[in-house]
Design a protein that fits this description.
It is built from 11 helices and 18 strands. It is an alpha+beta fold. It starts with 16 loop residues before the first strand and ends in a 46-residue tail after the last strand.
């Protein structure tokens, strides 16, 4: 039987998932047992789609027709039918093209607003939400903490690995995009127990043979305190960096090369092959200047080596109105999806994930003040810009190893984020515990008014650069406040 969970269980009260027995600790332990424990904080992230929420609705007495870019059109159709008191077959939903939604368009609020107005005035309605409304009152990836505790012995290696992830609740009331699960998700406690816990325990894991592994997930028991969403890969963009930063610390304590330490503790041969490939293609261990370092990570099944330049001459570079700071200068990523159908599309998806990861490590978050988010546009929100994009990105797709097709949409962010965080820790000589690292270094933009009307965005960016919201000049997220 595994040992009882440690004091970390008190973090949220939910029962932990004990995934492995404590086989290594079954006999006498020679030498001291050491422990590493650290808590990480991950701040709010904007879950807005690339363009504002839009919908066209034409509601008549006996039918309704809607046009909108949607991720869950079946769920939207049933919501509208319920709203109007119509049979489902009297509601027609047309799914139009749209930009990246990242989970935002699983929800149907734009369609519902357009439908209500169209019903009231008896005419077709075109609805377009304001970008500022979407940033401040739309949906956000919930703020969370991740506490990790590991015990190890120089002779036996890692004995136990515990991780407690505690989060503002994620709204899963859309279910899986159809009526049955969406209805079930709205039952008391169903969102938290039936969906959040299940999704976490089915998607988060520790891929190493670390003796006794315990994963626990706790949420506040209301999902509607904030408008939240899953925003690209659910929990793993926060779970994995916390894990891998601790793995690096353990490897250092044991005097092991961090990549070889991972190789020695891997359980899955397929994953080992991917890590071997990225080790060779990414030139792991090559000579680098002081202040430049590599980091590595992988997740089901991806492997990443990232190089981060934290030298002053790089981090302090000046670009008018820009967020600069440490630069990710090289990323090598290997991905194994079983049977790749569209390798070029898969590469593009991974490249997008890499750029999301860079922003999430250094700059990308929302600042909550007095119940309001300060960011009011993409100008304010510090996602990865071209001047922070790596000069060299190499994505390698592994050859087909069977007939099973794996997914790619949720694959591209966690591994690069963890690798970049580990590389930054080595390059800077510091352990980042808050993400993005620049979140508490000040607000690098001029906050837009909270009272309408909000000034319209310029239509000619070249005439308005740097944007008025960036009037504070160059911002380095790695500088002390």
């Amino acid at each position: 039987m595994p040992n009882p969970p440690a004091a970390l269980d008190k973090l949220g009260g939910a029962l932990p998932l004990v995934t492995k027995n404590l086989g290594r600790a079954a006999g006498p332990i020679e030498g001291p047992v050491e422990a590493i424990e650290q808590e990480f904080v991950f701040y709010w992230r904007n879950n807005a789609a690339m363009e504002p929420n839009v919908a066209v609705a034409d509601v008549r007495e006996d039918r309704a027709e809607i046009w909108s870019p949607l991720q869950a059109p079946i769920y939207t159709q049933r919501q509208i039918a319920h709203e109007l008191g119509l049979p489902v077959n009297k509601v027609t939903v047309h799914v139009t093209r749209g930009g990246g939604a990242f989970g935002r368009r699983m929800f149907s609020d734009a369609c519902l607003e357009a439908v209500r107005v169209s019903k009231q005035i008896g005419k077709p309605v075109r609805y377009m939400g304001h970008r500022t409304d979407e940033c401040r009152a739309g949906r956000a990836h919930p703020m969370c903490t991740s506490k990790v505790r590991a015990t190890f012995n120089k002779n036996l290696g890692v004995l136990t690995f515990e991780q407690r992830h505690t989060s503002v609740a994620t709204d899963y009331t859309m279910g899986f995009g159809e009526a049955i699960t969406a209805t079930a998700a709205k039952l008391p406690f169903a969102n938290e127990v039936g969906f959040s816990q299940t999704i976490f325990l089915l998607t988060a894991n520790v891929p190493y043979d670390f003796g006794g592994v315990v994963l626990g997930y706790n949420e506040i028991l209301t999902y509607d305190s904030f408008n939240t969403g899953s925003h690209r890969n659910l929990n793993n963009p926060d779970v994995r960096p916390a894990q891998e930063l601790i793995v690096d610390q353990i490897a250092a304590k044991l005097g092991k090369d961090p990549l070889q330490f991972r190789m020695d503790n891997l359980e899955d041969p397929r994953t080992r092959k991917v890590l071997e490939t990225v080790r060779d293609e990414g030139q792991w261990g090559r000579s680098l200047p002081n202040g430049v370092a590599q980091g590595e990570e992988y997740k089901s099944v991806t492997a990443v080596i990232a190089e981060v330049d934290a030298r002053p001459q790089t981090a302090n570079r000046t670009i008018p109105g820009a967020t600069t700071g440490p630069r990710v200068r090289r990323v090598t990523m290997v991905v194994d999806v079983g049977l790749p159908i569209n390798p070029l599309g898969l590469k593009a998806q991974m490249e997008g994930g890499i750029h999301s990861a860079i922003g999430q490590v250094f700059t990308e978050s929302e600042h909550l003040r007095d119940g309001n988010f300060l960011e009011g546009s993409w100008d304010d929100y510090r996602y990865t810009r071209m001047w922070n994009s790596p000069p060299e990105v190499n994505v390698i797709v592994m050859p087909a190893n069977g007939e099973r097709v794996g997914g790619a949409g949720e694959l591209g962010v966690p591994a690069p984020k963890a690798a970049i965080a580990c590389a930054y820790a080595r390059a800077s000589g510091t352990m980042p515990t808050e993400f993005p690292i620049g979140h508490n270094k000040g607000v690098p933009f001029k906050v837009k008014s909270f009272e309408p009307p909000i000034p319209a965005s310029p239509t000619n960016g070249l005439d308005f650069y740097p944007a008025p919201s960036a009037a504070k000049g160059t911002f380095n997220p790695a500088q002390p406040q």
